[in-house]
Amino acid sequence: MSLVFFAAVVLFAAAFAFLNGFRDASSSVALAVRTRALTPTIAVLLAGLFNFVGAALSAALALEVSRTWVVLPAGGNGLTILMAGLLSAVLWGVYNWWRGIPSSSTHALVGGLAGAGLASVAVGGNSVLGVDQSLMVQVVLPLLISPAIAFAGSYLLVWPATWAARYTPPGVVNSRARRAQAVAAGAVAFGHGLQDGQRTSAVLILAMIAAGLADGGSMPVWVALLTAAMLTAGTLAGGWRISYTLGHRLVRIDPLRGSVAQLYSSLILLVGAIGLHWPVSTTHTVTAAVLGAGANQGYAAMNRRLVLRILAFWTLTPLVTAAVAFVLELALSPLSNL
């Protein structure tokens, strides 16, 4: 039965990675398409390529994540917890896509694992060790810190950027900014692959450990390739509902401010993944940076009602996925003893 559960976890993890790429493609392509720096086709192909490279290179980082993230109980109990957490994250992600709301897949997954772990304890099973620290490091801190840093930094960077371009004709400024934005779109996609590829690969490693198929000391090639392939496939499919929200509904933004937002976002993602080994939400970072750069204008450019709705969804994400995973684990827990 453990092998059946393991196969189900692999299937749900693949769906999670696909949906992650499908929804988060907007983070790298929305502004570039909105400001006509790239055509939609070129933007998606570029994002897909750099997502694949980033996710493939994140394999080594995923090993560290799997060791320091959470510790699951062995056997069917651990696998059903993973199944419930993944499925709740997938369902919430689909709902957010349908509503056109950019939200964090990482926060959804961690919330789901926390809820499933609580349900396991409630029915007499084993708990998920380390989930309290994981919630603090991967949900609470990024929820509060990374969007604030992204918003404040991009807001402040608009001033030196506009000052440097003060004597340059607007057409030249827009042309240069679009070229910079094309580079930034690839950098954001690469950072997204590095960041979010870790999570799916780490889940698969944890599943192998729970099923007794590995000890977590090395990264199987198939795990890295499956994660990279599904993230890329989702990116190529393109979640244009969220792209429309970021590019058209959230804030009015020009190519210069768009390039500032994306270049700064890519820097945060790369420093978080490579320098600090800190999980940073691509969605939260890019959305906050776009808001920061767009807010630094001489007129009201922000859709405040939409911003409040997005913030509400960000806050609800770990709570809702925890509740859904709690119910799912209650339903799955009797099967873990078979």
What does this structure look like?
The chain is mainly α and 338 residues long. It has one domain (2-330). It has twelve helices and no strands. Helix 4 (76-99) crosses helix 5. The longest helix is centred in the middle third of the chain and has 41 residues, at 170-210. The termini are close together.
Give the SSE layout.
Elements: H1 2-34, H2 40-57, H3 59-68, H4 76-99, H5 105-122, H6 131-164, H7 170-210, H8 221-237, H9 240-249, H10 255-275, H11 282-295, H12 304-332
Helix pairs in contact: 1-2, 1-4, 1-7, 1-8, 1-9, 2-7, 2-8, 3-7, 4-5, 4-12, 5-6, 5-12, 6-10, 6-11, 7-8, 7-10, 10-11
Low-confidence stretches: none
Total domains, how many?
Answer: 1
Radius of gyration: 20 Å
Number of helices: 12
Describe the biggest sheet? none
Structural class of the secondary structure composition? mainly alpha
Number of strands: 0
Into which percent range does the helicity of residues fall? over 70%
- Span of the ends, CA to CA: 7 Å
Residue-averaged pLDDT, rounded? Answer: 81
Question: What's the helix-strand series?
Answer: HHHHHHHHHHHH
Please state the overall shape, judged from the principal axes of the Cα atoms. elongated
* Strand residue percentage: under 5%
